[in-house]
Design brief:
- By secondary structure, the chain is of the alpha+beta class.
- It has one domain.
- Helix content is 16%, strand content 28%.
- The chain contains 2 helices and 7 strands; from the N terminus they run βαββββαββ.
- The strands form 2 sheets. A 5-stranded mixed beta sheet has the order 4-3-2-1-5. A two-stranded antiparallel sheet has the order 6-7.
């Protein structure tokens, strides 16, 4: 069960990722591209080029988890950023997973 608290660090990879990658491939991406360490905690979110899939990678203290969501129609509105990743709050990730647009500049969410 994924339980997001206010203290959960959430990193969203800005650029699309090949979602055929699994544990080792995504962990390597986090280390080399996002410059983070998976085993230090946090949740990492990725999307594919068409933005119709979302993959989450997180360490729960005892092992790694991967969760994937496939949209049946439409696409995710993926936030842009200047670096390799964007930091999100738990409520922003929940909104993103629900299909809402997360916009940092003017506040919150749009459909």
């Amino acid at each position: 069960m994924l339980a997001l608290t206010a203290g959960t660090r959430i990193f969203l990879a800005v650029a699309p990722v090949d979602l055929r990658r699994s544990f080792d491939g995504l962990t390597a991406h986090v280390q080399t591209v996002l410059a983070q360490q998976v085993l230090e905690g946090g949740l990492f979110a990725f999307t594919n080029r068409r933005r119709n899939r979302l993959r989450l990678l997180w360490w729960d203290g005892t092992g790694l988890w991967i969760a994937t969501k496939r949209l049946e129609r439409g696409a995710l509105t993926w936030p842009a950023g200047e670096g390799a990743s964007v930091h999100l709050r738990p409520e922003q990730l929940s909104a993103l997973m629900s299909g809402l647009e997360v916009r940092e500049k003017d506040g919150w969410y749009r459909r």
